[in-house]
Amino acid sequence: MMRPFCFIFLLMLLASCNSVKKYNEQLTASHAVEDLRNDVDKLYTQLKKHHPKLYQYTPKSDLDFKFDSLKTSIKLPLSTQEFYKKLAPVVAYVRQGHVSVGYTVKRFTKKERKTLNKQKFEFYDLDFEYLEDKLWVVQNYGKDSTLVGSEVVSIDDEPVSKLINTYKTRFASDGYNTTLHDRYVSKGFASFYVRDKGFLDSLKVTIKNKDSIFTKNFKRILKEEKKEDSTSVKKAKTKPENLTKQEKRQNRLSKRKKRKDDKKYGYLSKTKQYTRNFDFIGKDSTVAYMKIRSFTNGSYKKFYQESFSKIDAAKSKHVIIDLRENGGGRIAEIDHLYSFLTDKNYRFINDSEVTSRIPFLKSFMTNTTPIGLKVLGCIVSPIMVVHNLLKTRKEDGKLYYRFNKHTKVKEPNTLSFKGNIFVLINGNSFSASSLISTHLKANKRAVFVGEETGGAYNGTVAGVYRVYELPTSKIKIRMGLMQIEAPQKQIPDGYGIKPDIEITPTIEDIRQKRDVELEWVLNDIYK
Prior knowledge:
This protein has 18 helices and 23 strands. By secondary structure, it is of the alpha+beta class. The strands form 6 sheets. Strands 2, 3, 4, 5, 6, 7 and 8 form a 7-stranded antiparallel beta sheet that branches. A 6-stranded mixed beta sheet has the order 11-12-13-19-20-23, with helices on both faces. It has a 3-stranded antiparallel beta sheet with strand order 1-22-21. Helix 12 packs parallel to helix 16 (432-442).
């Protein structure tokens, strides 16, 4: 009876191994010139067909020239990775931050993944910051804390400055903003490097610490196993302690509260942090501080209701909202948050410009959608099409989609805060972070401290996305399908929300663990 199952399992295992092998061969294989040029044409066709603001920051003539030049430059067969390095800078020239080129990395069999899961690459323990045109180690989750505050000079004898300048060309901010590039390239430097060089077992890194220059080899090492002491082993072998009904009930309640808190604050298991944090800081409850890492996960309504109830009860005079490193998220969440920060009726976004009357179906039915989901999509498509048609309208030759909930005029929340608001921003404040900042800036509702946001004041193309795979190289392109914008606009177009008080941390601030932006706000409040 077991033999047929074993045989089927063996066939599945062999198929999986062959699939991985075939995929990896495809990455390194050289693709014909005409096939790659065809990929370029396919990509540009997709952008012209589905992106509603393709020429917002780059004129059509310039973009046509860029794509034609890319095709002309392909004179020899290239691998997928080589083609990616040529393609990504051209797509970045569109200057739309939500248009991105996916990268391809080596895949592993189940057996290989099992082995790798027991290891870690020491280089991944480092966090970086790009300040003063240099790359600094600002955190080390490994054992060598002496590296913090050191400058990374070169990697495998290649200057870091050259690497940074190369990686900056492979992604875009919204418009002409440059602060996102410095922030984003340092935040994801390790990923950029591996994407560029492929899978690595070791790296030779040249580091400068004050006046000392030395070389450190980072390797792939075995993870430390948790050691069980004799006490814990003994406890495990002994019979569990009998708990009273009251104690059992208390344990259940504690676990339930932990689950609710994790959902409300948005627990991030990887970093062991919460997405949303609230506390009173400074001398008393006069100042409330809200750190929001993103607008993506958790039950945000409970968090904001609870936080502003505390602010109201404490009669706080100042609220600090920290949006640094916040890459965006849900429109629904920032709309809800803004209702607590305004004292006027407001319309959160305009109707969104689109290129199709059925944008949701267009995002769903693409060549990257699994067959099963396509079948499901065909079944529900009549409902989806009717829904989309009712939501879209044509005006002055353009199509618009209406998010009824966010485009209608709403009243402030009954707990709306009437005091002073300070907003901390930097280059990694992007997308939804920029959208709510536009409202606060336009209505002179907050003082902004830090640096210009990476997202544009005048909106961004996001909402729903279409992911398309190029036929030959298998590189995936992601693009937004809807122009999401606040009613307010600024001239010139193509820039982010600029701070009222411009502050950029120095490496000395990082070494001393000083939060200079927050310090400025507190000093301004108490002076």
